[in-house]
C-alpha cells in the first residue's frame, strides 16, 4: 500500500508584472538592483493579484481543478490542509472556508498550517504518514498559497519585487500500489532566527503600539550557503541509504527563492539544468507552493511520469529545511 499524489494543479494570479516596474521603483531611490533581481534571484516576471483576487480565491480555484482532474467531488475528501504564511482569514481557519466552497462532507479534518515556506512540503510528509496510519481517511487535499507581497517593505530591495501569487493544490490518495513518500529528513539552524521576522516587533508589542513599521516583514541580509550545503549532504546520504543515485531521479524540485541556490546545488551534485527545473522567472517566488509548482510544470512538460523518483527540497525563515524522496 502507498499514498499516491493523484492530482496536482496550479492557479496563478492574472496580472503579469515585469522586472521593469521594480527596477524603476528602486532607481528612484538611487538603488541599482538589476544584478540582485536578475542574476541572484533569477526573476523576469511574476503573476500578481488583480482586482478581486486573493490567496483564498486562488486556493479555491486550484482545488476545484485538482478535483476535476481525477473526477472527484469535495465530499470524497477526508482531510483538508491549507498552508500559508498569512491566511486570508485566521478566524475561522481558511481551510474551513475552502471546505464550504468545495461542498465537502461533515466528517473532515480541516487545518491551517504555517511553517512559512516549508509548510506545503511538511504537509505532504505529515499527510502521507497520516493516511497510511488512519483506518478511516483515504484522501487528503493539500493547498498552498502565500501573499508575502502584502508584508514586504517597498523600500527593501531584498524582498520587494521578489514575490508572485500562485496557489498549488494536490490530492493524496491511499492506494494498493508502490508509490509515494520514501524518505524525508528535516534540519533546523537558528543562527539566523532574527533575520526574517513578521511582525518585526512581535504581535504583543505591535498591537499595543500600533507602530506602522511593524506592518512590514523584517528582512535582513543573510548567508544562504549552509542551506545549500545541508540540503546537498542530506540528499546524497538519502539517495545512498535508499539504494539510488542522482541519475535515478527524474526531477529535483527545489525552493524557487533564488536561482543562485539552485545553481550551487547543480554544481555540487552535478545535476543537469533539465533535471532541476527553475520556474521562478515566470511565477516569481510563491513561497510555500514554489517547489510544487516546479513539480506541476515538470509533469505538464512530461519530464516526470508515473513511477518516477523525485526529490523535493525547500526551507523556511528561522531556519527550517526539509528534503523529501518521493515516488510519483
UniProtKB/TrEMBL annotation:
Metal-binding among keywords: no
Gene Ontology biological process terms in this record: fatty acid biosynthetic process; secondary metabolite biosynthetic process
The entry's keywords: Acyltransferase, Transferase
InterPro entries: ACP_syn_III_C, ACP_syn_III_N, Thiolase-like
Beta-ketoacyl-[acyl-carrier-protein] synthase III N-terminal domain residues: 111-182
Annotated EC: 2.3.1.41
Keyword Protein biosynthesis attributed: no
Stretches assigned to the Beta-ketoacyl-[acyl-carrier-protein] synthase III C-terminal domain: 239-320
Signal sequence segment: none
Domain of life: Bacteria
GO MF annotations in UniProt: 3-oxoacyl-[acyl-carrier-protein] synthase activity
A Pfam family per the record: ACP_syn_III
Protein known as: 3-oxoacyl-[acyl-carrier-protein] synthase, KASIII
Amino acid at each position: 500500500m502507498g499514498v499516491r499524489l493523484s492530482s496536482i494543479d496550479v492557479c496563478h494570479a492574472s496580472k503579469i508584472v515585469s522586472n521593469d516596474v521594480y527596477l524603476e521603483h528602486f532607481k528612484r531611490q538611487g538603488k541599482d538592483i538589476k544584478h540582485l533581481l536578475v542574476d541572484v534571484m533569477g526573476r523576469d516576471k511574476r503573476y500578481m493579484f488583480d482586482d478581486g483576487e486573493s490567496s483564498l480565491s486562488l486556493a479555491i480555484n486550484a482545488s476545484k481543478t485538482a478535483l476535476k482532474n481525477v473526477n472527484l467531488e469535495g465530499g470524497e475528501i477526508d482531510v483538508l490542509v491549507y498552508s500559508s504564511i498569512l491566511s486570508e482569514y485566521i478566524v475561522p481557519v481558511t481551510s474551513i472556508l475552502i471546505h464550504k466552497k468545495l461542498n465537502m462532507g461533515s466528517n473532515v479534518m480541516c487545518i491551517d498550517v504555517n511553517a512559512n515556506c516549508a509548510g506545503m512540503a511538511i504537509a505532504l510528509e505529515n499527510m502521507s504518514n497520516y493516511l497510511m496510519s488512519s483506518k478511516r481517511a483515504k484522501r487528503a487535499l493539500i493547498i498552498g498559497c502565500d501573499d508575502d507581497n502584502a508584508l514586504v517593505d517597498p523600500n527593501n530591495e531584498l524582498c520587494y519585487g521578489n514575490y508572485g501569487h500562485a496557489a498549488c493544490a494536490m490530492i493524496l490518495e491511499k492506494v494498493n500500489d508502490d508509490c509515494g513518500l520514501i524518505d524525508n529528513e528535516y534540519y533546523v539552524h537558528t543562527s539566523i532566527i532574527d533575520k526574517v521576522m513578521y511582525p518585526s516587533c512581535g504581535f504583543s508589542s505591535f498591537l499595543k503600539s500600533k507602530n506602522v513599521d511593524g506592518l512590514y516583514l523584517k528582512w535582513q541580509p543573510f548567508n544562504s550557503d549552509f542551506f545549500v550545503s545541508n540540503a546537498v549532504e542530506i540528499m546524497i546520504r538519502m539517495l545512498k541509504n535508499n539504494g539510488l543515485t542522482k541519475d535515478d531521479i527524474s526531477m529535483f524540485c527545489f525552493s524557487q527563492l533564488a536561482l543562485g541556490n539552485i545553481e550551487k546545488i547543480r554544481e555540487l551534485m552535478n545535476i543537469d539544468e533539465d533535471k532541476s527545473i527553475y520556474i521562478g522567472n515566470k511565477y516569481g517566488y510563491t513561497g510555500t507552493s514554489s517547489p510544487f509548482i516546479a513539480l506541476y510544470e515538470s509533469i505538464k512538460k512530461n519530464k516526470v511520469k508515473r513511477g518516477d523518483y523525485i526529490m523535493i527540497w525547500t526551507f523556511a525563515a528561522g531556519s527550517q529545511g526539509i528534503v523529501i524522496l518521493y515516488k510519483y
